[in-house]
Amino acid sequence: MKFNLFAAEEQAIEKARALGEALAVVAPDCVSDFEALVDAFQRSTREQRRLVRVSDRLQAQLGTANQELERRRLEAETALEHLREAQEAIIQAEKLASLGALVAGVAHEINTPVGIAVSCASHLADATARLKRLSDEGAVSRGDFSRYLATAGDTTDLILANCQRAAQLIAGFKQVAVDRASAERRRFNLGTYIQETLVSLQPKLRPLGHTVSVLCPPDLELDGYPGVLSQILANLVMNALTHAFPNGRVGLMAIEVEQPDSDWVRLRFSDNGQGMVEENRARVFEPFFTTRRGHGGSGLGLHIVHNLVIGALKGSITVESAVDQGTRFVLLFPRQTPERD
């Protein structure tokens, strides 16, 4: 189309030249003006041709740039997908590590009552064997029998109490483990569940003397996902142990729960550790951000906490901290978690 247009213009110029020759005969005074007009038209045609060539070149460059942009976009999308897959894999690894810590913690806690029960059973077995030997010899006195009854009563009470304690720990462990693995919804007592979660963290807390105090209404029941809340609390505690208390410093942490109204729960987790500078405080929920790279910090603990609070609990989380003033996380979420999309 462009070449046909220029061909028509060339024909118009040729006709104008012929018209100029005829004009020179009938009106010689107008020839110079007419030729100037024809020259201007020719210059305009040449400029149009130049602009068309520039336009073609720019369109070719734009096409190349668009192809390169599309290639880069596809590369970026592929890289983003790989990053998401890697992040999901690391998050799953963090969850498995958390579950492993739960297993280790409960095993450590069960060791005490089971050990006491075994010792008492052994003592009772020895006392029973002694009484049987005396009975076989026909030398059982009233005093021997009374002492055996007292020993049997004391040891069976201890065995029963410690077996019940171990059973409670196992039941709590099974429930927390199932909650974390399956993320099923159910009703649960928040105060009791916090205590069950802290049991799994005792091997990390006890060696250095760290303590966690809990203040929660005893009758507060939630309808939601207890496994999510357990993972949130575990990550907050482990984050404090990793970052708040350097150089073996003994720390105090606190969990305080209140209800601003009947439909909402506010949970505060605080520590009396070294706190954070403002630059770090503003970035704590970013994925892979950590000030302890290579020293126990993956940079995903608080990112997971943020995602669980916002996504699973349908709530909000804020953090307050200052250097040497400790850190406090404030979670606000509905007492009855809305149904997931």
TrEMBL record:
The cross-references to SMART domains, in alphabetical order and at most eight, read:
HATPase_c (SM00387)
Asked whether the UniProt record includes Transferase among its keywords, one would answer: yes
Keywords per UniProt? Coiled coil, Kinase, Transferase
Name the reaction it catalyses. ATP + protein L-histidine = ADP + protein N-phospho-L-histidine
Q: Coiled-coil segments, which residues? A: 55-96
Record Pfam families: HATPase_c
Q: What EC number(s) has UniProt assigned to this enzyme?
A: 2.7.13.3
Protein known as: histidine kinase
Q: Which PROSITE patterns match?
A: HIS_KIN
Q: Which residues form the Histidine kinase domain?
A: 105-337
Which Gene3D superfamilies does the annotation name? 1.10.287.130, Histidine kinase-like ATPase, C-terminal domain
Q: Which domain of life is it from?
A: Bacteria
Q: What is the lineage of its organism?
A: Bacteria, Pseudomonadati, Pseudomonadota, Alphaproteobacteria, Rhodospirillales
Q: What class of enzyme is it?
A: transferase
Mind telling me which InterPro entries this protein's record contains?
A: HATPase_C_sf, HATPase_dom, His_kinase_dom, Sig_transdc_His_kin-like_C
GO MF entries:
protein histidine kinase activity
Presence of the UniProt keyword Kinase in the record: yes
